[in-house]
Please model this.
Amino acid sequence: MKNRVFRYSLTILLSHFLVYPLFSQESKPLVNATLKGTVIDSLTKEPIEGVTIQLQGVTHSLKSDVHGNFQIVTGQKLPLTILLSSLGYSSKTIVANQPEISIVLQPSSDRLEEMVVVGYGTQRRRDLTGSVARLDAAEVNKIPVASFDAQLQGKLPGVQVVTNSGVPGESIFLRVRGTTSINSSSDPLYIVDGVFLNNTSLQTIGLGGRTSSPLTDINPADIESIEVLKDASATAIYGSRGANGVIIITTKKGSYGTKTKIDVNVLGGWAEANKALLPKLASGPETATLANEWWINSGLDNPALNQTFANRPFRPISEGGRGNPEDQETFDRLGFLLRNGKLQDYSVGVQGGGDRSRFYIGAGYTGQEAFIKVIDFSRANLKFNFDHQLSDRVKIGLTNNFSRTYRNQARTGDGPQVSLFNSAISSATNIPIFTEDGAVNGVDNTYTLVDNYDVNTTSLRYIGSAFAEIDLWKGLKLRSTFSADYNLYDESQYWNSKTSIGIANANQATSGISRNSTWINEQILSYQTNIGQHQLSALIGNTLQSNTFDYAYLEGNGFANDSYKLISSAATVRGSESWSKYTISSFFGRVGYNYADRYFAEATLRTDGSSKFGANNRWGYFPAFSLGWRLSEEQFLSSADWLNEFKIRGSYGITGNQAGISNFAARGLWSGDASYANIHGTPLPGVGPFQLGNDNLRWERTAQTDLGVDIALFDHRLGITVDLYHKYTSDLLLEQPIQGTSGFSDYWANVGEISNKGYEFLLNAVNIRNQNFTWNTSINISGNRNNIEYLPSQITQYTRDWVILKEGHSLNSFWLYEQLYVDPQTGDAVFDGQLADGSLPTSARKVFRNAYPKFYGGIGNTFTYKQFDLGVDFSFQYGNYSLNLYRYFRERNPSSGGVFENVLNRWQEPGDQTDVPRLTSVGLNYTIDANSRYLEDASFLKLRQLTFGYKLPRELAQKVGFSNARIYFLGSNLFLWSKYTGDPESNVTSNPNSQGIGSFGTPPQPRTFQLGLNVTL
Amino acid sequence: MKITTYFILFLSSLTFTSCESFLDVQPKDAVSDEVTIVDRTSAETAVRGIYSALRADGYYGYSFQILGFFSGDNIVYSGSQTVHQTLTNHSVRSDLAVLATVWNQIYHTINRANHVIAKVPTLPVTTGFTEENKNQLVGEAYFVRALAYFDLARTWGGVQLILEPTSSASSLPDLPRSTLQQTYEQVHLDLQRAEELLPATTNRIRATRQSARALLARYYLYQKNWDQAIRYASYLIEDQTNYGLVTPYHSFYSNNASNTRESVFELFYDVNNTNNQAGQWLASANGGTAWIRPSGTIFNLLTNPEIGGDRSSLVYRTATATEPNVLIGNLYYRVNRTDPAFLIRTAELYLIRAEALAERNGAGDLLAATTDLNAIRDRANVPLFTEPSNRAALILAIEQENRVEFALENHRWYDLIRTGRAQEVLNISDVNRLLLPIPFSQVAIDPNLTQNPGLD
Model:
């Protein structure tokens, strides 16, 4: 039971502390020499910070400080041999004869020595056999979105990032090498400093299909690097969690032996609407004209409607109408809703370390207002990381992240009622905002919603871990970690008497509190040794993880007046509760071998047991193998000076997935949510079957093959990485539809197969590098083709079945009636498959395009000229389609609310060439929900980020007391090129696997402008 | 050595056995299939579960209702799902999403009833759980199952008859569609059993012997078995202690009325389990969407004192910021959406008997039919029918009376189908359109399920 696990874990932890005294007796070191040095860049003559200085013969190393200075105190005597290495510079070994030296390092683009974080360890880039993408967080972490995942767009090959709305802090769509699943999650596994992170939104209040992102609880400013593990050899060590890729976040840790450094960053600016992406409404007179036309045409088509010119809605008031079209005014609700949203971001990072300890303390505050009223997001956080070397053999450490995020929300997205953005768009522009006596006109008017509906959430989050690591024997280490992710998510709502829900319930208040807690205990035993040219590393470990989710909800109805807002004042109160839990137990191992830094081989195996599955199939086994060969080390290529690195690598492995399905999916269950009464007025409990069981339910499995090449040319100035992959997912965890006659519509089963085939291309180039000017370019392009290989019965998704899953087609394909053209003679829409009698059978509805891009990526250029720097980052997607729901809803009956300008292009008289059919309620023109006319090409290219900075000359900065100071401008989403009407990335469904349901009620992403100041003390 | 000891401890803890219990997590708000109906309490909760399915959104709470609403000529749809207008235009395609919702929910209800029918009779009789207790519970399940197959038959025609509970996905029945006649025979069989098993009590929100008889009266009317229809309708009309027409008309629903003498069978809702069609009837000023509205024609009929009389209380006219002229139905008006769903009212039994008498046309039948019809007219304060000898006019008057008496209840479409008048009255040229298409998604996964002729 649980207690047993706890006891066992405690034993492990305690054992470290019992062992520790054995090693802690040491003698005080003897000081024989002190060496002071400064490291300087050969081109710019600037001091270099963070150079690793390794004294020969000892295991400790230290780093140069922000002034390039270091100091070695040692028992050795002069002369001392020291090795200097730093990413971006050629390494150098020097022999110091005097106690004070100055060392010059040559810049280099060689990244082979870079340490890359992989599953349960780090590896030199040179030694990697898997596909791992790495990003220095500093490249993107100023973009004003609330979470680091949204900052990744266009930066990493194989990682597709789509920001579904312009509301700060909402969930985004991120895929590593395509979507592998239908009903379970296709999100990658997120790991922060070893803690498996919950990235499922705890939002329960319906926000029209929008959810908040739990990843916003982490301040991007605390992140050092982001690694994305993509192929099976890299992810299989995470077994059942690895099928969708793994994103490893490493936060700043400080370094041993450096002077304390304080970084302060202040950013401020604003977010505004990109007007070109906002819906364009017809004016009041235009709306009225269209409404009359609709009325009269419908009457002509169906005389029974009794709709004629004489009784058209917009006729003179004297005739009982609403006034002629030309007499209508135009009222602008959207203008009222828009604002310049204030953006602010402050962060302080303090890092440093002594001989035996290192630390990082980060504190930050971020405030982001949306460009539509009311909505804002803010986060305050504190980060504390600390490591301490208890003895030469024992190390302990902590990572901690505390944060509080607060969201002032509003409903955006789906739903006509109480949706803030929609309320401004879906009201016809000729309808006055205020009545003649000055009151707000109509229920849930934009003006009402802004002031009378409160919805906000507070998320309190702790993510942290404690570890102890013991050097048991030469190269043999045992590490034990306890980590936790605890999230308290508190949502509250209040609808006052001016809102529709307030009216219906005499005001309504709700309070929901979710608690999500995960604890993980992990043991890892690792071993590393070199025998001549042979390098061997091995690792075994186990993990126990438990996740508990519970939720309590209270709703109060009936308040005395708008001043009473707490449920305690409500006349009636109702509540509900839910609870759920899963556990996973895992064992894993990895063996790596490398001969002469030339041939590499690695094998991993993981087994996971999950409580989610039936007893028959609880355990899954996930193996992977990989090989690497650095041809550039071979004799036959040694003469090619221009070729610095040429490595080919390949891997094959199997990973699994179980995330996103119900914790009790395998069980046959009766739910208690079926009450009824015996006698009128007294509800009593009732039960009924709600889930069919499946004892054989098991893991979803993804087999992945990857072939990759890494090339570095011309003194490492040109780097190219190309990967080809094939992912094949079988045993899909599917809510398999079954005959309704069974009393169920579906049940959880392992049915279906999906493939993802793709390529990734990454090019990094140092185009120019000299004393005053540098120009670097980075280009990445990735393509993925998704295909449902096997699915016994088609499945439709979303209301009106707009999306279909069908064998032989990609996921997120649309299911539509294709409008071929509008007959220039009659003005009627003509559909593919329409019968001679004009009717349109279901068999004419076809699978039609999909929401995934053919390729996507980014292009980044950075320039520095003396003290100036400029960064220009583009991101793009090509070949994806999106169903523009806003057009679907607002390019229909013009008498039922706001009408888009595009309807003015409707067919009016014979000979008109248009794709907007004749206005009428009769026939197919406007009654086909699934009309291809609303499907648009949503390819785009956008200027994602533009930075322009000026770094104060060092002398000047130091005069005012800083080591470094930089002032900069940062703009995001400045320009967008797309054929799509609206924001091509917008997506309105909360189904995390869904894409391409566009625009409806969703504010587009903002343009932002910020000025920042970064100083280092 | 100490390290070795701990290391061995570490490795020895890596055994699967210790983990099996760690991996055993039980849900807290649901129970396993096998332990659901074991005694009186659990049998009673399972029966309440049947009603809960019957009143759910997918059935009488909303979706089933709108199929009939919009197919008839009393009620129109004005919401955003314009495709619902295909019901009104009689051009429904099988991919209309609400078809599958209703289909699944009706069979879901049937499955719940099947569990009770299969399991309760096997439970041991104890002092606290008598044979009568068991009969009542099983009788209720038969009643609901009969109602469910009745609704399937009159909407889609003959369907697959599932009479056993579903225990696993691997044991799904492999059955062709039954004929319409076979389906109705099953309804008949279940109702007869219900009549026999159910107690002769009065409970308007649960099935009793009298509610089974009321449904049997409706059944016989559909079957044109006039003698039996008259007989069964009379059981209720004559039970004047418990059932009767309430006056004025609106008193069976207005001022938060429910459970009145008028009601033979209604579904109970409370604030935690709301009647969600109400939200679509309510005007926006009352927190609704007003997507379901009375048609202009029925509005005029109801507000005509000669025809609608007191039944004009069912509708009113209002204006919103965007629409100067909105017709609102007032049968579902409670802002907290606890309106009952009225399934069988005493008024229906009067009109059933009137129609059966007029159709049978035996000695004195027309006069008796006129009396029954006039009971309804009198209650609504409209002029009485005065030509008992004119049989054709009488039958038409009964049809008209059904239309206005149940203006906002789910009768009109099925009445016109039943009498064979739908094509003429609703101007439907294609006879196949008198049934709705089987949901596309169901035809796609069940090879036994053939589509209705001429539909797609």
About this structure: The domain at 207-270+293-329+343-419 of chain B is CATH 1.25.40.390 (Serine Threonine Protein Phosphatase 5, Tetratricopeptide repeat).
